[in-house]
């Protein structure tokens, strides 16, 4: 019994350790919701860092509780800018909720240099699963948007990128860890969605493709949808088909593609299988056998796929990962990679699209 | 009782596959880490089978009692000392490693020596329990944490962010002579059998352990997962930039429909529990084996006096851990880990051989 008290005493004494940790209370913290990096006008302080800080509310109401404070600063490194920013705010900056990183368009070349990405990966509190996006014209403009439907600052952006809220075929999603993987991997090139602010909303319908050194091009919305389907197996898009007499749209239910690379030709054979149902049509779809509409849609989407593949090839970028697949399916280590580098510009693409219409929707 | 043997093996497999081995193997991923994933289990399992068979010759006896049967005290004491210290050091290394991760990701405001001393105090209490209680707490903690860990593993295998092309690209590098370090590291996955040196006291029925053949497959599966999932997530080249491979991999996983979106916090807690239970086992082993050199030591009673040697040993090692942990930096830690990886395999093999020879000579004596 007596010994029991000794143990209890030791346990109680061990509580003395607890106040020793430098823990800051939640109302002494500023939660950073989004980080923006722009190019500044000063040559010796190239980074213009903007942070979107959430102002806490007791009760959440859409459109009312998304007040935020925007702080920004220039620095020769991101660290320096953030350090100096701490003197502008009254609470401790907490990055653990920062789910999106917006890079200004002018900064796009620098992001691929190791130094810029480095800060995000080295900081332990920034999650690797944070979203990456390119801000057009600047990251600060993107962060400075307040939408009417937000429950907390930055909420709309998060909802657009994880496929929880809107599921748009125009929105490409890119994560920080994936971006780093693509920057370093041979045969897989990085990309980023482009966010453009519009008075009190965002428009995210383009994607920027990079090679390992710089921004190569920004794809058009139409190309972005095809791009999304190829890179992320995005399932919920639709196919518009136009001919002289009719115009109809197919909502895709199932999408799958496979490809093989034939090094002797050199050629890439892609088989795309799509199952969907008609969503809109200018005429009744019971006039012709469905195979007629299917062939029509196939022919048109085939040219779209071919167009995108050839465009990516002309830009010498490979965001789909053809090169990595080539490395994965051949067994000669580095020789595969040099062979692929020589082969990719000469590659001819053969995309074969198979569309099956399951239903014409609610009416004929 | 054979399920307790499985727990011992499982805890060592899990702790090594998530903490040590990815780092060592991924550093050598282009220089023969993949064949070592297959050679390691062979070596590890041969040692495991030999050791368990030999220990089962001595029903309900721990290593100290067996050594006393065959060796004079002057030879047994240094042997026990070496064995105990080596086992406890592996626990220390893991605690320091875990404390580094915790202080970086979970509690950056706390000094590492405070963190480590809190960990060490709890581990000392755990290690001083009776052998049976240690086994029971091992079971409870494993049952609590393994399902969560498995969920994470399954989720990461089937996630669309896992790039299987990168995994396949690594297969090109499977016909390369592996280095000693990587073979030794991957055989370390199976080091849990060493626990039998003391826990054999509770294995009194002498029945052969069933389903022993399952262990190599379990270990191989875990090792393949722990090697290839980080590569699939972080890329064949990109993975080189990360230090704590698995922590970074888990950080890249987002589970939308689980109560915590950023699963890294769940993972770190599991890691903490696993590390605690592993260190508890190794320190229990070490303190029991070294404690047996003292006259007052008696595993049968729970009296204060008989536990004193073990307590002193745990406290000394604990203080050593805290001192070491607060003095070294990450580079030194990784160097220590990789030299440990080189050192442990010959040690384990020699130790298993000694016990094997004893079990043979016991049979000869009986005949």
UniProtKB/TrEMBL annotation, chain A:
Subcellular location per the Swiss-Prot or TrEMBL entry: Membrane
Membrane-topology descriptor: Lipid-anchor
Annotated ranges, domain Spore germination protein N-terminal: 24-196
Biological processes annotated in GO: spore germination
Cited Pfam families: Spore_GerAC, Spore_GerAC_N
Keywords (A to Z) from UniProt: Germination, Lipoprotein, Membrane, Palmitate, Signal
Stretches assigned to the Spore germination GerAC-like C-terminal domain: 206-361
One CC-aspect GO term: membrane
Keyword Membrane in record: yes
Main location: membrane
Family per similarity comment: Belongs to the GerABKC lipoprotein family.
PANTHER family on file: SPORE GERMINATION PROTEIN B3 (PTHR35789:SF1)
Name the record gives this protein: Ger(X)C family spore germination protein
Organism of origin: Paenibacillus sacheonensis
UniProtKB/TrEMBL annotation, chain B:
Residues making up the signal peptide according to the UniProt record: none
Top-rank taxon: Bacteria
CC per GO annotation: membrane
The keyword Transmembrane is annotated on this UniProt entry: yes
Transmembrane segments: 5-26, 32-53, 74-98, 110-128, 140-158, 178-199, 211-234, 264-287, 308-328, 340-358
Biological process per Gene Ontology, one example term: spore germination
Keywords, alphabetical: Membrane, Transmembrane, Transmembrane helix
Protein name (record): GerAB/ArcD/ProY family transporter
Organism classification: Bacteria, Bacillati, Bacillota, Bacilli, Bacillales
């Amino acid at each position: 019994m007596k010994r029991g008290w000794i143990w209890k005493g030791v346990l109680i004494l061990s509580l003395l350790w607890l106040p020793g940790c430098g823990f800051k209370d939640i109302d002494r913290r500023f939660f950073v919701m989004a980080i923006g990096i722009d190019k500044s006008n000063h040559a010796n302080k190239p980074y213009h860092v903007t942070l979107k800080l959430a102002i806490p509310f007791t009760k959440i109401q859409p459109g009312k509780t998304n007040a935020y404070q925007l702080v920004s600063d220039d620095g020769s490194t991101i660290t320096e800018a953030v350090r100096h920013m701490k003197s502008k705010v009254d609470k401790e900056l907490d990055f653990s909720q920062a789910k999106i990183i917006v890079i200004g368009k002018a900064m796009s070349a620098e992001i691929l240099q190791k130094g810029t990405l480095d800060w995000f990966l080295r900081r332990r509190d920034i999650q690797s699963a944070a979203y990456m996006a390119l801000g057009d014209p600047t990251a600060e403009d993107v962060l400075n948007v307040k939408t009417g439907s937000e429950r907390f600052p930055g909420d709309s952006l998060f909802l657009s990128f994880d496929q929880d809220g809107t599921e748009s075929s125009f929105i490409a999603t890119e994560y920080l860890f994936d971006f780093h993987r693509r920057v370093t991997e041979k045969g897989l090139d990085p990309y980023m969605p482009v966010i453009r602010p519009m008075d009190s909303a965002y428009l995210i319908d383009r994607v920027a493709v990079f090679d390992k050194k710089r921004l190569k091009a920004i794809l058009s919305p139409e190309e972005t949808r095809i791009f999304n389907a190829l890179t992320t197996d995005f399932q919920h898009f639709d196919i518009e088909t136009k001919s002289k007499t009719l115009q109809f749209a197919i909502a895709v239910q199932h999408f799958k593609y496979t490809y093989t690379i034939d090094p002797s030709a050199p050629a890439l054979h892609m088989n795309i299988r799509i199952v969907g149902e008609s969503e809109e049509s200018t005429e009744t779809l019971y006039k012709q056998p469905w195979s007629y509409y299917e062939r029509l849609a196939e022919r048109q989407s085939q040219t779209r796929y071919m167009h995108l593949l050839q465009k990516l090839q002309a830009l010498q970028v490979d965001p789909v990962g053809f090169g990595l697949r080539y490395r994965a399916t051949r067994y000669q280590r580095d020789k595969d990679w040099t062979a692929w580098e020589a082969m990719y510009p000469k590659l001819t693409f053969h995309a074969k699209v198979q569309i099956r219409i399951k239903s014409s929707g609610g009416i004929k | 009782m054979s399920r307790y043997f499985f727990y011992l093996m499982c805890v060592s497999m899990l702790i090594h596959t998530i903490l040590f081995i990815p780092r060592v193997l991924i550093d050598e991923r282009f220089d023969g880490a993949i064949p070592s994933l297959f050679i390691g289990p062979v070596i590890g399992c041969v040692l495991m089978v030999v050791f368990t068979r030999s220990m089962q010759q001595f029903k309900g006896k721990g290593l100290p009692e067996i050594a006393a049967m065959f060796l004079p005290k002057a030879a047994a004491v240094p042997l026990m000392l070496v064995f105990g210290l080596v086992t406890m050091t592996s626990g220390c290394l893991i605690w320091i490693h875990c404390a580094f991760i915790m202080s970086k990701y979970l509690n950056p405001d706390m000094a590492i020596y405070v963190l480590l001393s809190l960990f060490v105090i709890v581990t000392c209490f755990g290690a001083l329990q009776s052998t049976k209680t240690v086994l029971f707490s091992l079971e409870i903690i494993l049952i609590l944490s393994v399902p969560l860990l498995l969920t994470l593993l399954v989720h990461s295998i089937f996630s669309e962010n896992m790039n299987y092309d990168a995994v396949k690209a690594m297969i090109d590098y499977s016909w390369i002579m592996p280095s000693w370090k990587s073979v030794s590291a991957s055989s370390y996955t199976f080091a849990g059998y060493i626990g039998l040196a003391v826990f054999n006291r509770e294995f009194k029925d002498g029945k052969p352990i069933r389903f022993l053949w399952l262990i190599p497959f379990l270990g191989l599966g875990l090792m393949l997962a722990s090697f290839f999932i980080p590569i699939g997530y972080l890329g064949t080249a990109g993975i080189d930039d990360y230090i704590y491979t698995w922590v970074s991999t888990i950080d890249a996983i987002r589970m939308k429909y689980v109560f915590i979106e950023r699963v890294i916090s769940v993972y770190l807690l599991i890691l903490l529990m696993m590390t605690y239970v592993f260190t508890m086992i190794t320190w229990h082993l070490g303190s029991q084996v070294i404690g047996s050199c003292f006259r007052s030591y008696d595993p049968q009673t729970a009296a204060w006096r008989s536990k004193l040697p073990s307590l002193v040993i745990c406290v000394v090692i604990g203080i050593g851990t805290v001192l070491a942990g607060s003095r070294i930096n990450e580079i030194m830690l990784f160097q220590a880990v990789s030299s440990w990886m080189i050192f442990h395999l010959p040690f384990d093999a020699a130790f298993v051989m000694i016990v094997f020879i004893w079990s043979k000579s016991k049979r000869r004596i009986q005949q």
